[in-house]
Hints:
mainly alpha, N-utilizing Substance Protein B Homolog, Chain A
Amino acid sequence: MATPRTLARAAALQVLYAGELLEGPLDISHMHALRHCDMLVRGLHEELLLELVRGCLAQHEACKERLEPFLDRPLSQLDPVERSILLIATYELVWSPLVPVRVVINEAINLARAFGAQDSHQYINGVLDAMARVVRTAELASRA
Length: 144
């Protein structure tokens, strides 16, 4: 059974992916429309959903800049699902320091397994692990 926070991340992925398909500016009204028509989001953590979508939209360029050094190709060449997962995880790694690194990475891997291409979870794991070593150095050092 998925937790309310996991459901919120899945719904945030759907919203960001919808924005990718629209190829235009995404706003909160799109999120509300998607939320009301999708059965997956019943019981989700609505505050987290709002935080993730608003944060990813507000910090979109900064997330891309933080993410690109860890990619093996331009972000624009990634599959839209993987791109959206990586943007959500980047937002959480950088702007949500209370969410542990292992939670951010595990949630992203699970989203990739559920919604991404066959082995995309491995790529996402590698990218996020490398990013976490730079962004969350102190947290990872304290766990060692």
